[in-house]
């Protein structure tokens, strides 16, 4: 028995399912009957090197996390103030 060969189009579509449609490698592997190892190789070979974009995405994500943490802290502080005010009005 020989090794199964896949067309470049098949490989591109498999990679597209992972990169554009958000399916996991395991899901695509099971769905298409391809080993996860092969999919990872195809991802590396077909996907262009976009480390600059990845670095920017990482920076954007970190910035968003910091913004959301600050917003959460402010919201929690406002909640605590409102809780205290509610308790104070009940005691009056």
What's the helix and strand layout?
Layout: H1 8-19, H2 25-32, H3 36-46, H4 51-91
Helix pairs in contact: 1-3
Pfam family, one: HTH_Tnp_1
Keywords: Coiled coil, Plasmid
GO molecular function, one term: DNA binding
Structure notes:
One of its GO terms (biological process) is DNA transposition. The chain is mostly helical and 92 residues long. It folds into 2 domains: 1-47, Arc Repressor Mutant, subunit A, CATH 1.10.10; 49-92. 78% of the residues lie in helices and 0% in strands. It has 4 helices and no strands. Helix 1 (8-19) crosses helix 3 (36-46).
Order of helices and strands: HHHH
Count of helical regions? 4
Number of DSSP-assigned strands:
0
Domain count, please report it: 2
**Measured on Cα atoms, how large is the radius of gyration?**
24 Å
**Amount of beta strand:** under 5%
Low-confidence segments, given as residue ranges, are none
Q: Within the CATH hierarchy, at the fold level, what is the topology of the largest domain?
A: Arc Repressor Mutant, subunit A
- Helical content stands at over 70%
């Amino acid at each position: 028995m020989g090794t199964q060969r896949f067309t470049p189009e098949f490989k591109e579509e498999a990679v597209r399912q992972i990169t554009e449609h958000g399916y996991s490698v395991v899901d695509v592997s099971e769905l298409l009957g391809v080993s996860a190892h092969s999919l990872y190789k195809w991802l590396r070979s077909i996907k262009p090197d976009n480390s600059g974009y990845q670095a920017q995405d990482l920076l954007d994500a970190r910035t968003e996390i910091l913004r959301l943490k600050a917003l959460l802290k402010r919201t929690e502080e406002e909640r605590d103030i409102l809780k205290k005010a509610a308790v104070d009005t009940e005691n009056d």
